[in-house]
Amino acid sequence: LRQASDRGFTCRLAAPKQPDDPEAPPVTDSEPKPATPIPVAEAKRARRLPLWSLPVAAVVIAAVATPFFWPSSSVDGSSPVRAAPVATAKTDVTPLPELTAHLPLHRAEVTPAPKAAPLPEAPVIIAAIPKDALVMDSTQMKLGTTRFLNGSWRVSVDVKDPITGKPPSLRYQIQNNKGIARVVHGDNVVCRAEIFSGLHQTGELMIKSRGNARCTDGSRYPMPEITCKAGVNDVATCTARYGDHAAIPLTFKKIGA
User: Fold this and answer.
1) Where are the chain's structural domains?
2) Mind spelling out the 3-state secondary structure of the chain?
3) 4-31 pLDDT tens trace
4) CATH C-level class of 138-255
5) What CA–CA distance (Å, rounded) separates 138 from 144?
6) Under 8 Å CB-to-CB from 18, ≥6 apart: which residues?
7) Which of 44, 50, 174, 233 falls 20 to 30 Å from 119 in CA-CA distance?
8) Where do the TM regions start and end (predicted)?
9) Does the bond joining 104 to the residue before it have cis omega, within 30 degrees of 0?
C-alpha cells in the first residue's frame, strides 16, 4: 500500500460482500425469465450517512423555511397598513339656505286660498202686467175666494169656425162664481149657457157650464171646460178642453166690471 500511495495511485477499500438473497424456487416453465436486479447495495449505501451531516442539514432546512415566516411577522408588526384612497364621484348639491336665529322671529301664517269671485247675477226683469189680464191674486187664493174673476171677459180660443174659418167670439159675465156665457159663431148665430166657477183642491181655477149652449137657430153649441193656473206674476195661464179632445190654449181679457 505504501508503494502505491507513493506512486500517486489511490486505493479504495472494497465494501464487504453482502450475502446473496436466497434463490427462488425453480420455475417449471420451459424458458427461464431473467431475474430483475435488485439495487441492494445502493440502497444500503444511502442509509449510511455520516453523523457530522445532521447539523449541516438542520442549518439548511432552517435557512430555507425562514422566508416563509417573514410576511406574518411583518403584518403583526406595529406599523399600520394604510388602505389605498378610493376616488369618489363629485355631485353638484345645491346648498341649503342658512337659518338665522336673530329675534324676533315671525310666526307662520296660513295663507287662505283665494276665493273665486261670484258671478254677477242676471238682473231680474219684471214684465209689465197688462191691465186687462186675468190675475189670480195669491191672497184671495189662500182665502178660497175668486173675487178677481168678477166682471166681463172676452175669451179667445184657438178654434176655427167651420163656416167662417174664424174662431168663435165668447163673452163671459161672472159675479160671485156664477154667470152667463155668450157665444157668437157662423152667420151671427148667438148661443147662451149658464156657467159657474170655483177653486179646486190643487189650487186651480175651474170654469164649467151646466150643459151645451142654446142657440137662436135652435141648435146646441158645445161649451169648453176651462182650467187656469197662476203663472208669472200671478197672471192666469188657461186651457180649454172640448169633451175628450186635447186641451188648447185660452186667454182672458177684461172688457168691463
Assistant:
1) 138-255
2) CHHHHHCCCCCCCCCCCCCCCCCCCCCCCCCCCCCCCCCHHHHHHHHCCCCCHHHHHHHHHHHHHHHHHHHHHHHCCCCCCCCCCCCCCCCCCCCCCCCCCCCCCCCCCCCCCCCCCCCCCCCCCCCCCCCCECECCHHHHHHCCCHHHCEEEEEEECCCCCCCCCCCEEEEEEECCEEEEEEEECCCEEEEEEEEEEECCCCCEEEEECCCEEECCCCEECCCEEEEEECHHHEEEEEEECCCCCCEEEEEEEEEC
3) 344 444 434 344 444 444 454 444 444 4
4) mainly beta
5) 10
6) 40, 41, 44
7) 233
8) 51-70
9) yes
pLDDT digits (tens, 9 = 90+) for 204-255: 999 999 899 999 999 999 999 999 999 988 999 999 998 888 899 999 999 9
Grid cell 436486479 — which residue? Answer: 37
Arithmetic mean of pLDDT over the chain: 75
Q: In whole angstroms, give the CA distance from residue 35 to residue 24.
A: 10
Note the residue count of the chain: 257
